C-alpha cells in the first residue's frame, strides 16, 4: 500500500514554500531603501541643495553687476521750421534716428560690511539646511525602523497564535474522541470548538493588522504598496546604552539643538546687517557708451559719440525717524529669545532622554522576566496537555494554561519591541541612529 502524505503536512509544506518565495527584507535593506526613496528625505535633500546654491559672493552682494543695453529710437515726421531771419523750412517724411548702446558696471564698494555679514548668513543657512536634513533622516529612519520591528513583533504573534490554534484543534479532537467513547459530554466538545473559533478569529484580526502594517512600511519606503515581503524573525536590542554618553551626544549632535544654535548665529548676523546702516554706502559706476543720431532737418544732420563713463557715489543715513534704533533693539531681543530657546530645548531634550532611558531600563528588565514567564508557561502547558489527554483535569484548566502560554509569548514579544522602541528613540535624541 503506497504511503499517503497527510493533508495537514501538505498545507504546512505549501506554507513554507510560500514564505520562501517572498522577499526577506532585512533592517539594513529597509533603511537603505528609505534613504534612497522616501519622499520627505528627497525633499529635504533638494532643500539643502537650494541652500548650497545660495552660498555665493555674488548672491551676498559682494560682486559687481554688469549690464549691456541698446536703445534704438526712430521717427518719421513732417517738419516745418521758422528761423530767426524769418525763413521757413519744411520737409515731409523727415527721418530722425537715435541709437545708443554700451556696457555699464555698478559696484557697491562699501556698505558698512553688510555684504560680509550677508555672506556668512548664507553659509549658516546652508548649515541650518544640513541640520534639518539630518533631523528629517533621523525622524524618517526611526519611523521606518519602528514599523519594521512592529512587523517582527506581529510576525511572532502570528506564530504564537498559529501554535495555539494547533493546540485548540488537538483539544477538539481529544474532546470528540472522549465524547465518542462516552468519557466526556457534548458540552465539552462544544466548548472546545468555541475556543478554537475564538483563536481563529484572533488570528484573522492579527493577519489583517500584519498586512496593513506591511502596506504602511511600503508607503514609508515609497515603493509599490502591494510588494510582498517577510521580515527578520527576531528583535535584538542594544544593551550597551549608557545615560552619561547619551547626554553628551545629545548636547553635541542632536540636530534640533544644532538648528537652534545656528538660528541664534543667524540672528546675530542679521543684527550686524542692521548696524551696517549706520555707516556710509559707497558705490562706483563705469561703462562704455556709443551714441549715434541722424536728423533729416536741423542744424545738426548727424552726430556720433563714444567713450568711457565713470563715477562714484556715497550715501549716509542721517535720520530715519529712529527706525535704526528700533531695528537694533528688536535684533538684540531676537538674539536673547534664541538663547532662551536653546536653554529650554536643552532641558526638554535631557528630560525626554532621562525618562526614555528609564523606560529602556524597565523594558530590558521585562525582557528577562517575560522570557522566564514564557518558558514556565510552555512547561505548564505541556504538562496540562498530557493531563488533559489522559482525562485528569477539566477543560477550563486546559484553556487557562493555553491562554497563559499565548499571553506570555505575546508579552515577551512586546517587551522586546518596547525595548527596541526605547533604543531607537534614545539614539534619535543622541543624533546617532545606527543599525
TrEMBL record:
Gene3D superfamilies the record matches: Outer membrane efflux proteins (OEP)
Main localization of the protein described in the UniProt heading: membrane
Localization per record: Cell outer membrane
Highest taxon listed in the record's lineage: Bacteria
Entry similarity comment: Belongs to the outer membrane factor (OMF) (TC 1.B.17) family.
Keywords from the UniProt entry: Cell outer membrane, Membrane, Signal, Transmembrane, Transmembrane beta strand, Transport
SUPFAM superfamilies: Outer membrane efflux proteins (OEP)
Organism: Maribacter aurantiacus
Cleavable signal peptide: 1-21
Protein name: TolC family protein
Annotated Gene Ontology cellular component terms: cell outer membrane; efflux pump complex
UniProt xrefs under Pfam families: OEP
One function term, GO molecular function aspect: porin activity
